[in-house]
Amino acid sequence: MDDKKILFSAIQPSGILTIGNYLGALRNFKKLQDDYNGIFSLADLHTLTVKQDPQVLRKNTYELAALYLACGIDPEKSILFAQSHVPAHTELAWVLNTIAYPGELSRMTQFKDKSKKHEDNINMGLMDYPVLMAADILLYQTELVPIGADQKQHLELARDLAIRFNNRFGETFKVPEGYIGKTGARVMSLAEPERKMSKSDANLNAFISMDDDTDTIIRKFKRAVTDSDNKIICAPDKPGITNLLTIYSLFASVSIEDAEKEFEGKGYGDFKLKVGEAVASVIDPIRQEKNKLLADKSYLDDVLSQGADRAARLAYRTLGKVYKKVGLVPRKRG
Ligand code: TYM
């Protein structure tokens, strides 16, 4: 690690990712990894807060590791590791729990949403989830956290906990800043454009998965909900078209204004086809590369193992400081 600033982010291996995860997170990770010391994690412990099939979780974890690499995360430049391989995450989460309040955690939007969605499994982990996320971030003296808009409230909590700890025990943590893209930070559902695109949506036509092939992508965009008149412009009363234009602009690397000009006077059919083609041209090579990488589990194990070693060295430096500050007696070694 050189003296560049630290960037940290994580993704849950809780299913095949969508183009929402790609535009809101992965794409920016790749863009930022040259200018920062990037640390990227597979937030496997976070996924346990909703019921997982253990076999599927293992599969999804390898899928995500391969996807990170296929999207351009370079394990020579950046650290890529599984959260559960570095126990310092749960250790710091415990200490942060002692300065986090149930009131602030129960107010979190995602906790409230997930409690509604998983009524039969409202567990302590679900409520404590943002504290573990704060530990993830603060362990590395992170300065920048690239995330989609839905994680902003959790990042605010990480900042609050860092400030609270520093005030009580003296300067210990860097207070991280969020990096939320101006466009693409909140990709919406193709079926209900007032709702966020989500990998756990029961309606498979509502999202484009990073595993969808070209035909599926084009078919899903054809079915995407649009608005009543035929104008292809971004406007608050046109959430469907605004979402499609945003997706197009990011995948085709053109500005929204240029995209609006390109489709002036065109029909929805043409437009949707072009959006589908633009998305498929980016997703297709990524999917193929991911599948190639998935065939070599031992390579993925090696990458994660080396990543965990490098992450642990940094993490335990911070955890050691924290334990000392709060008054825990260090264990005598040797
Ligand atoms: P997760 O796994 O739900 O999502 C991973 C990333 O994708 C972003 N994202 C979106 N961006 C744009 N449009 C969407 N429709 C969309 N859906 C998801 C998310 O904002 C996120 O950046 N708690 C985190 C994982 C995590 C983490 C961390 C992130 C654990 N520890 C520390 C940053 C730092 C989560 O569940 O993301």
The computed structural class is: mainly alpha
Strand residues, percent: 5-15%
Helix content: 40-55%
Mean pLDDT across every amino acid position:
96
Largest sheet: 3 strands, parallel
N-to-C SSE string, H for helix and E for strand: EHEHHEHHHHEHEHHHHH
Number of strands: 5
**In angstroms, what separates the terminal alpha carbons?**
28 Å
Rg, rounded, reads 21 Å
Question: How many alpha or pi helices?
Answer: 13
**Contiguous uncertain segments of 5+ residues:** none
Lateral strand order in the biggest sheet = 1-2-3
**Bound small molecules, which ones?**
tryptophanyl-5'AMP
Shape: globular
Quick take:
With about 325 residues, this protein is mainly α. The protein is built from 13 helices and 5 strands.
Keywords:
two-stranded parallel ribbon; binds tryptophanyl-5'AMP; 13 helices; 5 strands; 7% strand; globular; mainly alpha; 334 residues; three-stranded parallel β-sheet
Structural overview:
The chain contains 13 helices and 5 strands. It is mainly α. It has a 3-stranded parallel β-sheet with strand order 1-2-3. Strands 4-5 form a two-stranded parallel sheet. The radius of gyration is 21 Å and the shape is globular. Tryptophanyl-5'AMP is lined by residues 8-12, 20-21, 23-25, 43, 46, 133, 136-137, 145, 147-148, 150-151, 185-187, 196-197.
Question: Helix and strand layout, with pairings?
Answer:
Elements: E1 6-11, H1 19-32, E2 37-42, H2 44-47, H3 54-70, E3 79-82, H4 88-97, H5 102-106, H6 109-117, H7 124-138, E4 144-146, H8 152-169, E5 177-179, H9 214-223, H10 239-252, H11 256-262, H12 268-294, H13 297-326
Parallel strand pairs: 1-2, 2-3, 4-5
Helix pairs in contact: 3-12, 4-7, 4-13, 7-8, 9-12, 10-11, 10-12
Residues 8-12, 20-21, 23-25, 43, 46, 133, 136-137, 145, 147-148, 150-151, 185-187, 196-197 line the site of tryptophanyl-5'AMP.
